[in-house]
Amino acid sequence: MSSEKHGVYITRHKDSNTKKIYYRGNLMATYRQQPKTIRFKSPLVNDANQDLCGGWCPLGMREDDGSVNDPMLRQLLEDRKPLGFLFADSKKAAEAMAHDIRRLRPDLELRVLPPGPHRLNHEVAVAQPSQLMRIFDLDTLYEDYLESGVLPKATLDKEFLKYACRTLISFAEEFDIDEGVPPWVTGLVLGYPVENTISLYREGRV
Predict the structure, then answer these.
(1) How many Cα atoms occupy the beta-carbon half-sphere of 195 within 13 Å?
(2) Per-residue pLDDT for 54 more than 70?
(3) How far is the C-alpha of 105 from the C-alpha of 35, rounded, in Å?
(4) How many CB atoms lie within 10 A of CB 138?
(5) 99 with 108: CB under 8 angstroms?
(6) What is d(CA 141, CA 110) in angstroms, rounded to the nearest whole number?
(7) Torsion angle, alpha carbons of 126, 156, 39, 108, to 10
(8) What is the mean pLDDT of residues 141-161?
(9) Which of 43, 86, 109, 205 has its Cα between 20 and 30 A from that of 79?
(10) What is the sign of the dihedral through the CA atoms of 105, 110, 113 and 117?
(11) Would you give the distance in Å from CA 27 to the centre of its chain?
(12) Please, which contacts does 103-111 make with residues 24 or more away whose CB atoms are closer than 8 Å?
């Protein structure tokens, strides 16, 4: 049996945790200065989602093809990811992909997006049909961020009030930190672990 590390490993320190991600023995990412405890829980938020969004698996190892075998789509169909994007070679292919997804899960919200400043290809945005305040326990999330100390209370109050009523699909064309969206929102709508985002705020990502 192979003894090489593969997956998520957490080292617990006195005042913080360190999370390391290994792929077949190779260290792919390290998140330092993570909180000892995160009370916020959601099946939509998990380490697999961070991997899917330009994460740790080496290029060419995933089978991202827009079919039901696509890891991104499986996460969305099985309620393990809030918002995701599937690539297509053309508008026609994207529309066909959207049609197939509607047959599998009519309740999911979809948008076909053309190439643009932040997209090289056509994409299908797929989102759970809800507002942030309805699908997530934002009160507990707020307390986790407040206790982490990464943002002032006034900033948290303003941002949580601004984004709580937004639907997930409304982030289809503007969800990234580079587009002015706060990191905690980007992390939440894409389903990243909260402790990973707090590590980013603390500049602990290596």
Answers:
(1) 22
(2) no
(3) 36
(4) 17
(5) no
(6) 26
(7) -10
(8) 98
(9) 205
(10) negative
(11) 20
(12) 104/68, 104/77, 105/76, 105/77, 108/76, 108/77, 109/167, 109/168, 109/169, 110/169, 111/169, 111/172, 111/173
| Average pLDDT of the segment spanning 79-94 | 95
> Per the structure block, which two tokens stand in for 174?
């503007």
Q: What is the pLDDT of residues 152-192, one digit of tens each?
A: 999 999 999 999 999 999 999 888 777 789 999 999 999 99
Question: Can you tell me the distance from the alpha carbon of 145 to that of 156, in angstroms, rounded to the nearest whole number?
Answer: 8
Rounded-to-10 torsion of CA 21, 23, 28, 32: 10
Q: Whole-prediction pTM value? A: 0.90
- Integer angstrom CA distances of residue 113 from 89, 94, 121, 146, 172: 12, 8, 9, 35, 8
Distance CA 153, CA 25 (A): 41
DSSP tag of 38: -
For residue 133, give every residue at least 6 positions away whose Cβ sits within 8 Å of its Cβ, in sequence order, or none: 164, 165
